[in-house]
Amino acid sequence: MGDIKQSIEDAVNVIKNAKALIISAGAGIGVDSGLPDFRGKEGFWKAYPPIAKLGLSFAEMADPYWFQARPKLAWAFYGHRLNLYRTTQPHRGFYQLLEIGQQMPEGYFVFTSNVDGQFQKAGFAEEYVQECHGTIHHFQCVDDCEGTIWNAENEQVTVNESTFEARDPLPVCPHCGELARPNILMFGDGHWSYDRTNEQNKRFEQFINKVKAGRPPVAIIEMGAGKAVPTVRLNSQMLTQRLNATLIRINPRDYEVPYGHISIPLGAKEGVDLIYSQL
Ligand SMILES: NC(=O)c1ccc[n+]([C@@H]2O[C@H](COP(=O)([O-])OP(=O)(O)OC[C@H]3O[C@@H](n4cnc5c(N)ncnc54)[C@H](O)[C@@H]3O)[C@@H](O)[C@H]2O)c1
Ligand SMILES: [Zn+2]
Q1: 123 in the Ramachandran plot: left (φ > 0), alpha (ψ -120 to 50) or beta?
Q2: pLDDT tens for residues 144-196?
Q3: What is the reported pLDDT for 39?
Q4: Average pLDDT in the 66-91 region?
Q5: Which of 7, 77, 139, 255 is within CB 3.0–4.6 Å of 180 for a Cys-Cys bond?
Q6: Which atom of ligand 1 is nearest to the CA of 132?
Q7: Is the sign of the CA dihedral 32, 33, 39, 45 positive or negative?
Q8: Which domain holds residue 40?
Q9: Which atom of ligand 1 is nearest to the CA of 39?
Q10: Does 267 sit in the ligand 1 pocket, CB within 6 Å?
Q11: What global pTM score does this model have?
């Protein structure tokens, strides 16, 4: 685990020296805002006791199959999360990260598998966020009939918590009248409409290529990225190689880093606060 004080000091030096910042995040970053992560079956079931009763794992629940088989159950799961993420306030670490990012001469970019929109809520510019698994705040047709993705700000989903079923009317596609679903990449998902995420990815690639051309020192701060679906962790590590960047991984449990990078075995809020207060 090493010496936390030393790791914070190392992280501060890397950030002070950096000209560009990549902020990388998994579900764990939201834990300090009061959101659940889905770490293991127990973690998921603790957050969703009705799903524990059905015996479904996160991967089994996050399957587009349920929108066909049991639309009210599918919308109970996503509707509950939509409402939860809408009412959650990002913790102060988000604002501190934004400030750090905005001070970078070559700018910042966020890469996250979170679908909760917490970065935008904290004021991060939409054009500097890559949501690799989509977002719950946009909807699409279950059949992906026209490829359309729409902002869900005017959509309401209410959930009967005792039956764990969403109430009628469920959201529908404006083109064909079929059921709508969140624009989130699910497991075994053949109908995810990826246009929005693709556009984000193009902007992220442009950012990477621009930064790469100038070869400045780059810092990557990664928080709350787990090992079960390791998209974010692997992407951070891949970017260290592409950009010759230093990774600062903040995670209270899964804190191991490749040799030469910085591990901070703390929660995101505390870890970011310690760094921020020494910059
Ligand atoms: N908020 C969301 O949008 C959300 C929530 C759950 C799951 N998901 C989806 O499910 C998948 C889950 O993978 P994942 O790796 O993001 O989550 P995960 O639940 O598998 O892992 C969470 C990670 O966060 C760490 N963690 C726990 N408390 C923390 C804290 N206070 N500060 C920092 N880190 C903390 C854990 O040690 C773990 O490594 C992703 O594909 C994602 O799209 C999204
Ligand atoms: Zn449709």
Answers
A1: left
A2: 999 899 999 999 999 999 999 999 999 999 999 999 999 999 999 999 999 99
A3: 85
A4: 98
A5: 139
A6: 43
A7: positive
A8: 4-276
A9: 19
A10: yes
A11: 0.97
Residue 69 neighbours by CB distance under 10 Å: 10
Cα(131)–Cα(190) distance, rounded to whole angstroms? 18
Residue 48 sits in a domain whose CATH number is 3.40.50.1220
Q: What are phi and psi of 18, to 5 degrees?
A: -75, 150
**Token pair in block for residue 271:** 């870890």
Element (H, E) at 260: none
Rounded Cα distance between 197 and 131, Å, is 6
Query: Which ligand 1 atom is the nearest neighbour of the CA of 116?
Result: 3
Residue with tokens 């692997």: 234
Q: Any idea how long the chain is? A: 279
Residue 110: closest CA among 122, 61, 31, 190:
122
Q: Which two tokens stand for residue 176?
A: 């064909």
Q: Which two tokens stand for residue 136?
A: 């719950």
Q: Whose CA is nearest to atom 29 of ligand 1?
A: 28
- Distance from C-alpha of 168 to C-alpha of 27, rounded to nearest angstrom: 30
Query: How many domains does one find in the chain?
Result: 1
Two tokens, residue 81: 């999360």
Q: Does residue 2 register a pLDDT over 70?
A: no
Give nearest CA residue, ligand 1 atom 21.
226
